[in-house]
Amino acid sequence: MTSTQTQRVLLAGGWQPAQASGTFQAENPATKTPLDEPYPISSWADCETALRAAEQAARQLRSTPPDTIAAFLRRYAERIEARTAELCETAHRETGYPVKPRLADVELPRTTAQLRQAADAARDGSWRLATIDTRSGIRSCYLPLGPICVFGPNNFPLAFGSISGGDFAAAIAAGNPVIAKANTSHPATTRIFAEEAQQAADESGLPSGTVQLIYRLSHADGERLVADPRVGATAYTGSRTAGLKLKAAADAAGTPIYLELSSVNPVVVLPGALAERADKIADEFTTSCLMGAGQFCTNPGLVLLLAGDTTERFIDGVNRRFGEAPAGVLLSKGVAGSLARSVGELAAAGAQVVTGGRPAEATGYRYANTLLRIGGREFLAQPHRLQTEAFGNASLLVVADDARQAADVLDALEGNLTGCVYSDTRGGDDPLYEQLVPHLRPRVGRLLNDKMPTGVAVSPAMNHGGPYPATGHPGFTAVGIPASLVRFAMLACYDNVRPHRLPPALADKNPNGRMWRLIDGAWTQADVVKS
Question: Whose C-alpha in 53, 81, 394, 423 is 20 to 30 A from the C-alpha of 100?
Fold first, then answer.
């Protein structure tokens, strides 16, 4: 049974009718048909309600025990798992992604795993980097920042969702309330998550307004929201155009904003690697580039090769594989249009279309698997245009004349999330590797060897970040707990403050016996010992 009643927003601890300026409907991209449920486009009145409730929740959360926050995150993960089938089926309708293996076997387990990792970090507390100097009487640690706005992307409805993903988990684990702005491509999926988040918050005894959800805003209200002085910080994942508008608004107000914007994720394939295993690399590249119709922020969108016969054979092999593989479903009409425009921009800048370059003749929003190529000299003539991100199942091959030109191409790259080098396993490419990697390393957040960049492991050592325009700041990661928590905290210093007025992390006694603290220059889990 379907409903035509406009869905409610989650504000101040309960579901209520939106103060709306209109409604919208999501679309099934596999069939190009609108889905039944209408969702509200909130006016500023909803933002004002959310901000007031979040401000009150933030005050209460500052004295909420970390174990309570951890209990919420764990209970939320359990509640999500109880609705796995419904969540995955709903996300399938809204994104076109297959229920299995993509949603049920990969993305949903990652979602709950990172919630549990965040719970562990909240309970342990070592992420606070408590530092105690007994001689000077000065102590410092990271404390919650305040209400956090999270804008989720279209391509990961579960693991990067505004009220379920890594930014949400990190913000909550750091002790902050979250105002989630759903991605309009998958509002029903986000609503289910919000239902379970609110139930888990109630069961765990978190303050009203700790988790809130708005589906859509006008651009002006979105910019006003991130600039509001009550907002501690914003996390945004999405297009560069929209992200930079939010950044301009937040920067003007002095409010922190963490952005994931665009990345072509260069892959350098050295000659020895091609001579050794060209077919294997072609298989790996094709799988990585076309997986999920290429709609990954770490999709390999640019491949750098050195001219030669083995390179030409490699290109022929990739061309064949691209032509044989079916074109996947794109997330929306907007994504399909953006991909077509980006491919057109690359071609207008001189790139040759090897295969594809047109909409696919199939049901739903699809674009033919597209491979383009250009010479190194031509790339260097227009490097900015030729780094246009073609978000989807497309990639540009850059064929350099020699190593020096390849180094120049790497120097011309903008900031990226990842960079990869394939080399001869027997060491034949080592001198060339040593020559080129110093040019690549400063351009990427994560450097890989001999593996495609598509996967982003939820590991404490992971950096899912990088220089602009991959992100808005190269010093932070959106994936990797506990490092991701620091984005949503402020460094709070206490100078000669009486012991009973210090936060638990800075007390003489270790608050849980597990927290690592830097005491008089040494990391320890011990209590402060006064001489």
Answer: 394
The number of CA neighbours under 13 Å toward the Cβ of 288 is 27
pLDDT at 227 over 70: yes
Q: Record the pTM.
A: 0.95
Structure-block tokens of residue 152? 């989720």
Active-site residue identified among 260, 276, 284, 389: 260
Q: Which of 88, 149, 297, 420 is catalytic?
A: 297
Q: What are φ and ψ of residue 37, in 5° steps?
A: -75, 130
d(CA 29, CA 365): 6
493 noted as active-site residue: no
Closest alpha carbon to 370 in 385, 391, 387, 353: 353
Q: Any catalytic annotation for residue 297?
A: yes
**Widest Cα–Cα separation across the chain:** 78
From residue 522, give the alpha-carbon distance in Å to each of 132, 518, 525, 528.
10, 5, 10, 11
Q: Residue 9's CB: how many other CB atoms inside 10 A?
A: 26
Sign of CA dihedral 42, 44, 47, 49: negative
Structure tokens at 36: 């039944």
**Which of 189, 297, 290 shows the shortest CA–CA distance to 236?**
297
Asked whether the beta carbons of 142 and 531 are under 8 A apart, the reply is no
Claim to verify: residue 275 and residue 384 sit in the same structural domain: yes
pLDDT tens readout for residues 438-454? 999 999 999 999 999 99
Is 282:313 a contact under the CB 8 Å cutoff?
no
Cis peptide leading into 144, omega within 30 of 0? no
Query: Is residue 303 helix, strand or coil?
Result: strand
Q: Identity (one letter) of the amino acid at 451?
A: K
**DSSP class of residue 329?**
B
417-459-112 Cα angle (round to 5): 105
* Domain-ending residue, one of 404, 432, 449: 449
Do residues 149 and 47 lie in contact, with contact meaning Cβ atoms separated by under 8 Å?
no
**Alpha-carbon span 49 to 34, nearest angstrom:** 30
| 18-73 pLDDT per residue, tens | 999 999 999 999 999 999 899 999 999 999 999 999 999 999 999 999 999 999 99
- Expressed as residue numbers, the domain containing 288 is 266-449
The CATH number given to whatever domain includes residue 430 is 3.40.309.10
Torsions phi, psi for 347 (to 5 deg): -65, -40
Q: Give the C-alpha separation, 469 to 54, whole Å.
A: 30
Tally of domains within the chain: 2
